[in-house]
Amino acid sequence: MQSPLQSPTAATDPKSVKVNLSTGTGVDIDWNDGHASHYAFVYLRDACPCAMCNEERDKAGRQPGQPPKPAPGALPMFKPAAKPVSAEPVGKYAIKFNWNDNHDLGLYSWKYLREICPCEECKAD
């Protein structure tokens, strides 16, 4: 018997996923429960779920998707906007990005993406 999170109609299962690599606008997901999510690439890079990024966020007291704060007194440095060079599915449960900063360790599960949905409705929950 499948658990509710594994059922094909679970809220954490996408109905469709569009990765807008060429336009650089981000990822659009339509979920099985009718909800729609849009994730900017910068948001996703700042929400990387790998152990290294999680540790950095925890030390800084940041939530997934929150950009790092510059060090006090530091001059702003030019940094190219985060953008994936490629994206690939990982089985039926996740997506993996290879970022333009050479980072490629994070597996973004559908469950994780639903949990960090940046829309106003989800932020209010």
Short description:
The chain is of the alpha+beta class. 22% of the residues lie in helices and 26% in strands. Mean pLDDT is 89; it is low at 1-8.
Question: What do you see in this structure?
Answer:
The structure is a single chain. Helices cover 22% and strands 26% of the residues. With 125 residues, it is of the alpha+beta class. A 3-stranded antiparallel β-sheet has the order 1-2-3. Strands 4-5-6 form a 3-stranded antiparallel β-sheet. The chain starts with 13 loop residues before the first strand and ends with a helix.
Shape field = globular
Order of helices and strands: EEEHHEEEHH
Overall mean pLDDT = 89
How large is the count of helical segments?
4
Q: Would you count the extended β strands for me?
A: 6
Tally of structural domains = 1
Q: What ranges have pLDDT less than 50 throughout 5 or more consecutive residues?
A: 1-8
What proportion of the residues form beta strands (DSSP E)? 25-35%
Mind telling me which CATH architecture this is? 2-Layer Sandwich
Proportion in helices: 10-25%
Structural class: alpha+beta
> What is the C-alpha radius of gyration, as a whole number of Å?
15 Å
CATH class: Alpha Beta
Termini Cα gap: 30 Å
CATH third-tier fold name:
NE0471 N-terminal domain-like
How many strands, which pairing sense, and closed or not: the largest β-sheet?
Answer: 3 strands, antiparallel
Strand order of the largest sheet: 1-2-3
